[in-house]
Design goal:
By secondary structure, the chain is of the alpha/beta class. Helix content is 49%, strand content 18%. The strands form two sheets. It has a seven-stranded mixed beta sheet with strand order 1-9-8-2-5-3-4, sandwiched between helices. A hairpin with a 2-residue loop joins β6 and β7.
Length: 292
């Protein structure tokens, strides 16, 4: 009986999200984004994650007083709300005719595209990170990306379908986090695909590496792949501006040209993404328990 009640609850949640998507799709993009931002800014502070966000913010910006930190964290909630609601209309966000994405640094992709090279694009949970994979796919790359499974399987399938509609499934793909996903990624790399990774989250099984000068459990699997397959890393900064997103591709780096450990290579990556966070702190996902 409990299983039936649970499945019924999950299905009702799915129906609510599905109906919400239908309604939101009828509205202009900016209104959808504004609704998400307003709701999360309003209700986010009542969640358990609010305390995590405040504690994280204090660790990095200890020069700010409590009220300043609270105001900034509220803006982080606003960005998260915008991102989640924008995911529900992702097809409209990435549609070129809507002019929501501006791209800089295409010259830094020239070598990879001309030589059909596999690379690893790395970025962080900043601005709207959901637009990265579709944007890179539309630039002609074969792309693989890992996602976290949503607990509600009905909603999970719905979101994956929305993501898949935004890429060319004949060459690019999303795969769930886990052993099977890892196998699919390695297989794709062997078949000349590239990879998009968000490298800023905690990995309980990872190494202790300095992030903002704090020892933090850090994922380095993408570096092991880069080392083994001799892949360059391309930093990708994503910033939310007033009415569009600004994506910048930076020159490729290869930390393994020097004889260094993965942990040392990750420090190089961390220095890059720390700068992005400092530049636009209120667009980062501070609600994640990164420093515990």
């Amino acid at each position: 009986m409990k299983k039936i009640i649970k499945q019924l609850r999950l299905f009702i949640e799915f129906l609510i999200v599905y109906i919400l998507i239908i309604i939101l799709y009828l509205l202009p993009i900016n209104i959808v984004s504004n609704i998400g931002g307003y709701l999360f800014k309003l209700f986010g502070p009542f969640s358990k994650s609010h305390k995590i966000a405040i504690a994280n913010y204090k660790k990095i910006f200890n020069n700010l007083n409590h009220n300043e930190i609270i105001k900034n964290v509220e803006k982080c909630w606003e960005n998260l709300g915008r991102t989640i609601f924008e995911l529900l209309i992702l097809e409209k966000i990435i549609d070129k005719k809507n002019k929501k994405i501006k791209i800089n640094g295409l010259e830094n992709l020239k070598k990879a595209t001309e030589n059909n090279e596999s690379v690893i694009f790395f970025s962080i949970h900043q601005s709207n990170w959901e637009i990265l994979v579709p944007t890179i796919d539309k630039l002609g790359f074969k792309i693989g990306a890992i996602y976290r499974h949503i607990n509600n399987n009905y909603i999970n399938k719905l979101i994956i379908n929305k993501r898949n509609k935004c890429i060319d499934k004949s060459k690019s793909f999303y795969t769930p986090k886990g052993k099977e996903g890892a196998k699919e990624i390695i297989s794709a790399i062997n078949n000349n695909s590239s990879l998009v990774v968000l490298v800023d989250q905690k990995d309980n099984a990872g190494e202790d590496i300095k992030f903002f000068n704090i020892n933090s459990k850090t994922q380095t699997a993408f570096l092991k792949i880069a080392r083994k397959h001799k892949l360059n890393l391309i930093p990708v900064k994503n910033v939310r501006l007033d009415n569009y997103f600004n994506i910048t591709f930076y020159p490729a780096i290869n930390p393994f040209k020097q004889d260094i450990k993965d942990s040392e290579a990750m420090l190089i990556v961390n220095r890059i993404i720390e700068k992005w966070i400092i530049e636009n702190p209120n667009q980062w996902f501070w609600q994640h328990n990164r420093f515990s």
